[in-house]
Amino acid sequence: MDSGTLTWIIIVIALIVDFGLRIVAIIVIPRNRRPTSATAWLLAVYFIPYLGWLFFLLIGSYKLPKQRRLRQQQINQFILDSTEGIERVRRDHPWPPWLEPVVRMNRSLGAMPLVGGNAASLIGAYNESLDAMTEAVNAAKRYVHVEFYILSWDDTTGPFFDALEAAVKRGVTVRVLLDHIASLRTRDYKRTIKRLTEMGAQWRLMLPVQPLKGKYQRPDLRNHRKLLVADGRVGFMGSQNVIDRTYNKRSNIKRGLKWKELVARLEGPIVAGLNAIFITDWYSETGELLARERDPIATVTVEEELDCQLVPSGPGFDNENNLKLFLALLYYATEQIIITSPYFVPDEAMLTALTTAVQRGIRVELFVSEIGDQGLVYHAQRSYYEQLLRAGVKIWMYKAPYILHAKHFTIDDEVAVIGSSNMDMRSFMLNAEISLMVRGKTFVAEMREVEQGYRDASKQLTLDEWMKQPLRSTMLDNLARLTSALQ
Asked: Domain ranges in the chain?
């Protein structure tokens, strides 16, 4: 066989393989996948067939391994059984007619009940939240449960780690969960792990990517939750990680970036629910189901006892729990919707819900950062601004050098949601998140003060201003929007 014939045979085989890969892509990729995501993956496979398939095989599945999903189902049943009858919700103040179905949906999706008799306060100052958590650890007598997407020992967090060490020395059980990949990327990862080990804390990595140890799943499936529980008496949750507010990155320090967060300090029966979330994640990583801590039923004395419901979400669940909660509340709003989200890349359903809300006469405001720390997400977010502004959404841009990293929203004067979840497809599909729905006018009023503080530190984006963006920025924004759908 001469070289010319061999060349033609190779070309024909390559064409057949290429054609076959495209046909297989049409069959495999769209199955049980969002249309936008399926379209983006198909475009990737069609334009860069071999690389497209390689990336799809690496990160195309957004489900956790089967064993982890089975553990999630087991722990959901544990939560249902162990929280039966603890609701203690008072009905002396009329509920909005739409609240009960939302509560029922959340219970069905995430297993957690609505619990009454709680107190909650907001902490917006970065170091104050670290100080408050340190104080709670110092007061603990039996156990401390720590779970953060990023946990790093540095000069800022040093007192917190000192408190953990002191707790271990006085006989308190300290259990720590930290996300593997997120913490691994920090400057002080190795010394943090060494510090936890030397102090005697029980620690585990969440969703470890360690194929040589038989631990592997899609690398960008992460546990994004942030919470702390001390003795079942007090709990913390919100947007803040345990690390210096610059994240100790040279690029951040060079730009002068500082993170602006919001953390909720909780007391009352809801703290037991927060602890149950930790127990589920501990079980997922260790296979050890902690005996339910026999904490006395917590009582609080406040002006208004709050009704609270935790909503866990993530790839271990069959549904996008956080997205369904957000959509339900957006459609039930009758007066105003005020959203704070550092990474706002909505899917079509959420975008429709927001624009429809404006058309229903509802005031809709969105707080985002003027600048971004993650280029791809930042530009994908910007691609939605024109559509939102034309619909009548007010967009407030929190001024540099701060990254507004808080994640919360309010519906009318009735309900607020705070937690770890962004309003983007990553948080809806790929990350394990936790959201807290709170019913109570005093809590919403406190959130209103936070929102006003954001307005005072922001500038409002107008449509006229936005339409002056150069063409190159628009092209970059739209390209980032397309790639954001590769989930």
From this structure: 3-59, 66-306, 321-484
